[in-house]
Design a protein that fits this description.
- The chain contains 6 helices and 3 strands, in the order H-H-H-H-H-E-H-E-E.
- It is α+β, with helices and mostly antiparallel strands.
- Strands 1-2-3 form a 3-stranded mixed sheet, with helices on one face.
- The chain is globular, with a radius of gyration of 17 Å.
- It starts with a helix and ends in a 5-residue tail after the last strand.
Length: 166
């Protein structure tokens, strides 16, 4: 949504969470891997889609970007059949480019760091979809965590190995 106050809150929350991470875990700032070439590649991208089904088929560097973006969009809007007009395309094309950029960042991190295992939360949405698909493509073991909130103030976590819980 490009809401600066939400971006600020997210960064603040991330810094707070980093302090809670155990000492043996390496925290990698993704912007350390960003290059001008990545920006240039992503800014040149165009997307061809007419329907939600078309969107879900969109891929970039072995990553199902359309599926990831659509999943996050539906989670936020609860609209699984949006009107694909100029306003939607302007918003969604930008979202797809953001996911392509994130894909390039994840590729760079994985290629450089060479992890034996990747863990992420909810691999369906755009934030983790690139890590999931790259792990599958490069045959890297991964764990997906899902969280279900229970009444009154508890949660149940589910971890799945090399798959999503869905």
């Amino acid at each position: 949504s490009k809401n600066k106050s939400l971006c600020y809150l997210c960064r603040r929350f991330a810094r707070k969470m980093e302090k809670l991470i155990s000492k043996g875990i390496k925290v990698i700032p993704v912007n350390a891997y960003a290059t001008d070439a990545m920006h240039e590649e992503v800014n040149k991208l165009t997307f061809d889609y007419q329907t939600v089904k078309d969107i879900k088929k969109l891929e970039f560097h072995h990553v199902r970007i359309g599926y990831g973006c659509m999943s996050a969009y539906i989670t936020c809007t609860r609209n699984n059949d949006p009107l694909i007009d100029d306003e939607f395309r302007t918003y969604f094309d930008d979202y797809l480019r953001t996911m392509c950029y994130q894909t390039l960042l994840h590729e760079a991190i994985i290629d450089q760091e060479k992890p034996e295992h990747i863990s992420f939360f909810n691999g369906r949405t755009s934030e983790a979809r690139s890590a999931l698909n790259i792990a599958e493509w490069k045959h890297i073991d991964f764990t997906s965590c899902e969280c279900r909130f229970l009444f009154p103030h508890t949660s149940a976590k589910r971890y799945t190995h090399n798959s999503l819980s869905h």
